[in-house]
Amino acid sequence: MDKIVIVDDERSLLDLLTRVFTKEGYRVQATTSAAKAIEIIEKEDLDLLISDIRLPEISGMEILKRCREIRPDVPVIMITAYGNMKQAIEALKMGALDYIIKPFDLEELKITVAKGLEKRRLEQENLLLKRDLKERYSFENMIGKSRVMQEIFALIEKIAGTDSTVLITGESGTGKEMAARAIHLLSRRADRPFVSINCAALPENLLESELFGHVKGSFTGAISDKKGMFEVAQRGTLFLDEIGEMSPWTQVKLLRALQERKIRRVGGTEEIPVDVRIIAATNHDLKKRIEEGKFREELYYRLNVISFEMPPLRRRVEDIPLLVNHFLQKYCQQMGKKMKRVSPEAMSILETYYWPGNVRELENVIERIVAIEDRETITPASLPPEITLPVRRNETSVVFNPGFNLMAHLDEIAKNYLRQALVVTNGNMSKAASLLGLSYRSIRYLMDKYKIKARIDLAES
């Protein structure tokens, strides 16, 4: 029920309006005191204010001013006598929704109140929608305190203000589309469309039509003209995911569109100018695909104006607790459940797991746990079996991304196995050495090398 506050020094009018709007289904709080009205505005929630302009102690204009300062979203309707029209107009300039002249028609006032409350609802919904979009896709929502993520955040801020084409590489599930959205939302194109298309999800003929559009009759099923994603994204950003899967023929058309800033619909002859920023992403090594004859070299250089890699989750282990907490809050709220905490032992296992599916896999694991775990604390027993098994990796499935470093990769494997052995043995270095087939001196050397402390890191890192 919407709450209406009414201020007027005429008790009979106040009683009448209270009865009328209570009958209409509103909660009504009425007062003859301007000071009391200001106190309500300062301390209580309200959805709409009706105030007489002329009050004995403090004027209605002062109430309006105070309401605009404290609750600018609350609509205010002023009541005035015919002789105070100048003040009524001044009230509109100060932000009042409307004014009603005494003696007034109650039906007219009801309509004005209903319009004011509807306007406030729409404004609140719009604000919530914008806030939701910001929380879901904004730069700040890219979680990470690790050095590699901080470097990416800094780079995104630098390149967002340009119109340069961007190529984002990285394994599946690392957040390439989220990075692309962050670039868009920080750019001058932020108020224009962000259009995403997965180049691997459509066959060649359909992908060409999706990108460039088609004219009626150009192929079976083309019953009318259709805009392509280039036109839909006009003056915005077009995100081409899995660009490495694009067919050679479509690559030719894309290269032409990038070079000439014009497209031609399938089956059409008209050249259509386009103003679109391109951000492409791939989990393939495009240079290798060029060598294999599967990707055009000139298109690669057109796309690779600015490039960066989204790191796999195993290279940003220190971000895992932040991400876990973020996803817990998200899914506990969505499912209406009390916020859960993660035990140090369970967190250590989550930090040690290889995460072949990266952030996407971690999010799925947390969503599953929130859905089925009744206990408030997440323990190792709450985790899926594939996370807790002693051997959890298939090293033959390593993705050789640009910049792959074998020694760093082997160090990461050794560090993860060492941490897992310490988890299993509850920090007992002798037992961990035995599990790993190492001497006590060797395990001490590795712990110093990787800066792992037997008990402190297990609980806090």
Could you name the key traits of this structure?
single chain; 461 residues; alpha/beta; Helicase, Ruva Protein, domain 3; 4 domains; five-stranded parallel sheet; 48% helix; flat; disordered C terminus
What this model shows, in words?
- The structure is a single chain.
- With 461 residues, this protein is an alpha/beta fold.
- It has four domains: 3-133, Response regulator (Rossmann fold), CATH 3.40.50; 143-311, P-loop containing nucleotide triphosphate hydrolases (Rossmann fold); 314-389, Orthogonal Bundle (Helicase, Ruva Protein, domain 3); 405-461, Arc Repressor Mutant, subunit A (Orthogonal Bundle).
- Helix content is 48%, strand content 12%.
- It contains 20 helices and 14 strands.
- The chain has helices at residues 11-23, 34-43, 60-70, 85-93, 106-137, 147-160, 176-185, 204-212, 229-232, 248-260, 286-291, 297-303, 320-334, 344-352, 358-372, 385-388, 406-424, 429-436, 440-449, 456-460; strands at residues 3-7, 27-31, 48-52, 76-80, 98-101, 166-169, 194-198, 237-241, 262-263, 272-273, 277-282, 306-309, 341-342, 377-378.
- Strand 4, helix 4 (85-93) and strand 5 (98-101) form a beta-alpha-beta unit.
- Mean pLDDT is 87; it is low at 391-397 and 456-461.
